[in-house]
Structure prediction request, 409 residues.
Amino acid sequence: MPSSKVITALDIGSSKIRAVVGVVEDKKSMINVIGVGTSPSAGMRKGVVSDLDEAVANITTALEEAERMSGEAIHRAFISFSGPSLETYDSKGVIAIGGANSEISEVDVDRVLDAARTVSLPANREILRIIPKSFTVDSQRHVRYPVGMSGIRLEVEAHIIAGQTAAVKNLEKCLYQAGVDIEDIVPSQLACAEAILDKRQKELGVILVEIGASSTNLAVFEEGTVIYSCILPIGGEHVTNDLAIGARAAIDTAEKIKIEYGSCLPQEINEREQIDLSQISKSDTHSVDKKHAASVIEARYQEIFLMIHDELIKIGRAGMLPAGAVLCGAAVKTPGIVDLARNTLGLPVQLGFPKEIEGIADRVDDPGFATAIGLLHFGNRYGANRSLLSFNFGNIGNSIVDFFRKLIP
Prediction:
């Protein structure tokens, strides 16, 4: 009988909390989803806890729903972290190689990543991930996997993702009060990448765009690893706010307009089409021009994509990513968003859906579940060891080699 392991993912966003339970059998990459739970995220704002008691209550609601569906008691979970409180930095580390034949070992790779951690960060920041971009052995640059090579000097260019210490501690407190131990805290853009990007896309060059409620998270991959990431403080709730102002309607009504009638293609809407708000709201009874609503939505999404284009210009990748852009997150389901992104970014664009899942896959076959499913993949592929801060998690001594083997075609 093959053995199996149960993994729980908890995506705590600014709009919704999503809990997903998956089972993985040994020697299988496919995750069998057996439980899903969702709840509003009223206790969170812009990715951080704004009301501890309410956040705990909503987390508990999502977990209890997932427990009832899966039949599994949830005691541990992989947690996502996102929002404007995340910041990213680039760093370098250098060490001298000792030992017999000056051969580089996994211990040396750990040491050079530790050296990269010495970058000066604000006092209120803590490192969530250190991602090796490339290594240099003596004068040989752009080395992907240095273990086993010989040299006297090892350097690494690393990408660091850090979060506000207070935000991380408050999130940990929420999980503690909900009775859940944290397996690992994973930046949401890295979790999404595990769910929707394949190895070929990461090799060729791709930008992952996760548009959430309060922020847009970006991660650029090239040659199999992250070369750049950032967080833009703008997301789906800004579209809703614009609609509320433009339609002179309540926020809840504006959200329904966006979901039920939204479009990024105002040129395809007849000027005479109207939205009767009395059909979707008890407080708003007037009518709104549908073409005008689409123009408001288009303007805000275009602003987001122009900001993304500016970030690509900064790193010299504007129009230069062969695998293009992959969109995910709950705010990317608006009709026409792919066309708008393609025209603004000058790249091929597609929506990203979770891959390598079975079971009740229809419940999570949605770009909004990319982070939660990615957390399951993350837990399956790398395990959990919060004492390690690098991108690759697992058993000490094997984590580095396992991570780089996954990168090698």
Observations:
- The two ends are 31 Å apart (CA to CA).
- The CA atoms of residues 215 and 233 lie 5 Å apart.
- DSSP finds eleven helices and 19 strands in the chain.
